[in-house]
Design goal:
With about 120 residues, the chain is an alpha+beta fold. The chain has a single domain, classed as STM4215-like (2-Layer Sandwich), CATH 3.30.2000.30. About 20% of the residues lie in helices and about 45% in strands. It has a six-stranded mixed β-sheet with strand order 1-2-3-6-5-4. The chain starts with a helix and ends with a strand.
Length: about 120
């Protein structure tokens, strides 16, 4: 499994013009809000050639309530849930698993945590 190709594929499926900051695994320390962090490290090859990925998406913003992160989560959910995408290397289908607002110690930070089950097929090279 080529994680770099997978991350590029996932980012291309989430085209949010209003949120240009999408990071893999963790955000930059001084990243401006709002931003999205993708984690696609959990994979299972038991059903090879299908690779099952648990995609975690964390949406962060510095606001007084969850409305901004929920709005972005709505866009992501509507774009990905039960949708299939393809590029030159990958075919993938997304299924929403969980979606929750999360509290942070810093009450000015708001986070929405989403997980998707993604069925991935890497095309032969």
């Amino acid at each position: 499994m080529n994680k770099e190709l997978l991350e590029k594929f996932i980012k291309s499926n989430i085209s949010l013009e209003e949120i240009p900051k999408v990071f893999n695994d963790r955000a930059l320390r001084d990243a401006e809000y709002p931003y999205i962090v993708l984690n696609s490290s959990k994979g299972n090859t038991t059903n090879y050639p299908r690779v099952d990925i648990e995609l975690e998406i964390d949406i962060w913003d510095k606001q007084s309530n969850f409305s901004s992160v929920n709005k972005i989560a709505d866009v992501i959910q509507n774009a990905l849930d039960r949708q299939s995408f393809t590029d030159d290397h990958i075919v993938g289908t997304y299924y929403l698993n969980t979606r929750n607002n999360m509290d942070d110690e810093d009450k000015t930070l708001k986070r929405n945590h989403m997980t998707f089950d993604v069925e991935i097929y890497f095309k032969e090279e």
